[in-house]
Structures are given as structure tokens and as C-alpha cells.
Amino acid sequence: MDMKPINAGKLRSAGYDARERVLRVEFDDGRTLDHESVGEEVWRGLMRSASAWSYYRDNIEEEFTARRVTTAAKAAANPLDDLFR
Hints:
By secondary structure, the protein is of the alpha+beta class.
């Protein structure tokens, strides 16, 4: 999954898998969450928002089921991601 830097509030980066409808968000404390069943319009709204942290809290955090991404799952996604952020 291609992660885009955000650096807004507590968000560090976010990525979206349109086929799986999964939104991944990485926080400044290192936590990473995958939100399931997220539509592409929500992803676009997050990336276009003037305040991504507020958009996340208002439109994503409580609206979509989230699961924590483990270190192994992060490495399996793309081992080169950390080198190019």
C-alpha cells in the first residue's frame, strides 16, 4: 500500500487500497490502524482536507471498524516503504 505523508495533528501518513476498501493510517506514536469498508470518497476527503486530523476524527475514527496493524503485517505490505518516507 502506498503511504502518503500527512503530518497533521497526530497523523503521520495514510494509504488506501481501493480493491480491499482499506484505509491505513499511521500515527506519530508509531501505531498503525487499518479501517475497513472505507469508500474512496472518504479517502479523497481525508487527503484533500485542510485539517486532516479533524477530518479523521470526525469522519473515520468512530465510523469504520479498525484493527491494529502488527509489525509483521507492515513488513509484509512493502519492506521498502520506510526507506522512502
